[in-house]
Amino acid sequence: MTLAKTRSVSLIGVDGCVVDVEAAITSGVPGLHLVGLPDTALSEARDRVRAAIFNSGEDWPNRHVTVSLCPASMPKKGSTFDIAIAIALLAAAEVVPARACADLVMIGELGLDGRLRPIQGVLPAVLAAANQGCRTVVVPRANAAEAELVPGMKVVPASTLRGLLCFLRNQPPPIEEDEDDSGSFPADGLALRQQDIPPDLDLADVRGQAEARRALEISAAGGHHLFFAGPPGCGKTMLAERLPTLMPPLEPDIALEVTAIHSVAGTLRPGQPLITQPPFYAPHHTASRAALVGGGSGRVLQPGAVSLAHRGTLFLDEAPEFFAGTLDALRQPLEEGEVRISRIEGMARFPARFTLVLAANPCPCAAAKQIDCSCSPGTRRKYTSRLSGPLLDRIDLKLELTPASRAELRYDLEFAESSKVVAERVLLARERTIRRLAGTPWRCNSEIPGPELRRRFTPSSDAMEGADEALLRGALSARGLDRILRVAWTIADLAGHDEPGPDDVGGALTLWSAGRQ
Q: Which residues pair with 36 in a beta bridge?
């Protein structure tokens, strides 16, 4: 009996586990037998591997071949094990030295012609391999730029199985035909594409709405959720689309985390292996619950819009038009910053720490002026009640917008601040926040847990007087108090205060209570 092994990675969500791929050639009925809980796509690897080996000019061993995927108790799925299976089999057949592939991690799909096809999820797979002590990984050439984002990892790109075999044998590489190395994948029904925000968007384009522009600044500085209510044409969508222009670029470790999610979803753009700007997603109001929070049928679990908007903005325009169950599914990721999808095969985890922006008209007829509205009071109440109380209780900033006046539309240009000016203040406020939160796992005020917020970051009694009165009246919940404290700290950071004062807490209370149903 001859035995050889190499390694690959199994992904569940964005978490990966290194898998030992062992191949043994024994006497018995000729054929390839896979063990280790493979799914259908993985079981079909025997046919892909056989054809790829033949078309690479190698012989298939006419004996019984057993390929084991360890740990055997963990389900394996997908086509990412193709390369590892083929190399382990050929090493067991002594076509390549067994020691040459024993310490390598091999990730990728094989075509029938022997080409290495790009796959989704290379970045989180390579990150998992690096975290478990692996130092060299083989990936399809189209995924090489993505894999090279992981520091300290040696990446071996390969275009064909024949070329990979030459590398393992220390032979000159063959002359290979050009191939499409785009590495891009069409998004399926769950993987929503990032919205293309025009680069010339500027906050100065918005006329009037001084309070809303201030709320955008506070949201960008502290990562706070927003709710805009008002008639059509008052600027709700314009304001939401300009929130990303106020946010600073992603930090290197956060950029890797965001890119890993998009790698799993297959939404990375060609030529852009690393996402450096906060993403912006605006799903249509007909989006299903699975499209919004993630999921899928069978064994294929995909991140939803809340995860694709991780560390960026999720904008739900015409929020009352979304299905009630879909909106309420946001409550858990809003609180915990991640989505956990449970299936009988296991549980997948997707990060989902995003800034939520809701926009809503006051009634279903969407009349520009209240005098033209044909809706009854009951109809208006029913429409606005589609946004449940528990969901609105998790929104930090709520504003009722009114149409800009004629003077604002004509003369507000010289007073409106540009996104560049506001973004500079946002960056300074975030730097103050980071200095205050040094030594903690939190990066902005919206991430501070309630118990820690009350224990370590409670303002003075004088500053809290207005909030205490609201608690006594029952106008403020315990969750609402935590959110007011977080916003108050952000307002103080923007103003350069060492801690929130009465005006900071009062401003936060006003922004939280305005627009409540």
A: none
DSSP E strands, 352-458: 355-360, 397-400
71 preceded by cis ω (within 30°)?
A: yes
The label of the residue with tokens 């009349």 reads 367
Bridge partners (DSSP) listed for residue 65: 25, 32
Angle, vertex CA 42, rays to CA 41 and CA 48, nearest 5: 85
Report pTM. 0.88
Residue 174's pLDDT band (boundaries 50, 70, 90)?
confident
Cα–Cα distances in Å, from 178 out to 141, 186, 323, 380? 11, 21, 48, 61
Q: What would you measure as the largest C-alpha separation in the chain, in angstroms?
A: 89
At 351, the amino acid letter reads P
**3-state secondary structure at position 298:** coil
The pLDDT tens digits for 256-294 are 999 999 999 988 887 788 999 999 999 999 999 999 999
Give CA angle at 506 (502, 510), nearest 5°: 175
Q: Using CA atoms, how far apart are residues 353 and 341, in angstroms rounded to an integer?
A: 16
Comparing CA positions, the residue from 330, 182, 323 lying closest to residue 266 is 182
Distance (Å, whole) CA 505 – CA 496? 14
DSSP 8-state symbol, 38:
B
Among the listed residues 423, 493, 428, 509, the one whose alpha carbon sits nearest the alpha carbon of residue 220: 423
> Could you tell me how far CA 22 lies from the centroid of its own chain?
34
**Per-residue exposure over 396-424, b if at least 16 CB sit within 10 Å of its own CB, e if not:** bbbbebebbeeebeeebeeebeebeebbe
Task: List the end-to-end C-alpha distance of the chain, in Å, as a whole number.
Answer: 73
* Beta strands, E only, 361-512: 397-400
Determine phi and psi for 230, rounding to 5 degrees: 170, 170
> Using one digit for the tens of pLDDT, what is the confidence trace for 189-212?
333 444 455 667 899 888 888 899
Cα gap 142→163, rounded to integer Å: 14
Distance CA 115, CA 336 (A): 42
Strand partners, 346: 343
Residue 301 and residue 13 in contact, taking contact as beta carbons nearer than 8 Å: yes
Is there a contact between 318 and 361 (Cβ–Cβ < 8 Å)? yes
